[in-house]
Amino acid sequence: MRKFGNQTALFVTLFLFWVLINGSLSLGTLLVGVVVSSAIAAMLPGGWDPLREFHATPAGFSAAYHFLIYFIKELIRSNIRMAGVVLSPRLPINPGIVKVHTKLKSKMGRLLLANSITLTPGTLTVMLEEEWLYVHWVTVESTDIEAATAHIVAGFEKYLEVMYG
């Protein structure tokens, strides 16, 4: 029964999002929304519950707030850093793939970590394998796992650990 409830909630969420994005209640738009939402819900038979592992405590919500602030700060900082690299006549890059470690146990926490790294210019998560992430880094500063982890992962991880464990 829970499986059906998760899929129904996913369908309803997707359909409402579809209607909001399209801003139209025409029959054609609604029919396409039903078809697309149904297809996506069918492809995710267990539903999709990104908050399932979230620690809904005051500390968890505080960490989520601070995570967003930290992410925005890192996004701006890395954009400026990458603009400097691109605009530099010497183009000071040292690209490579580094292996970093995460303490996060939650699948959603690891996924958010990987996506946060990818969304930050200059880094791209290439692979996530258990507690290991392989990250393409445009300006590799260290290939040492601990040093690379401290530079790339630690800032995000301290908030995600409180949010997801």
How many discrete structural domains? Answer: 2
The count of helical stretches stands at: 6
Structural class by helix and strand composition: mainly alpha
Number of DSSP-assigned strands: 3
Would you kindly provide a written description of the structure presented here, covering whatever features stand out?
The protein has helices at residues 2-22, 27-43, 58-87, 107-119, 145-152, 154-164; strands spanning 96-101, 123-129, 132-137. With 165 residues, the protein is mostly helical. It has a three-stranded antiparallel beta sheet. Strand 2 and strand 3 (132-137) form a beta hairpin. Helix 1 (2-22) packs antiparallel against helix 2, helix 3 packs antiparallel against helix 6 (154-164) and helix 4 runs antiparallel to helix 6 (154-164). The two termini are 28 Å apart.
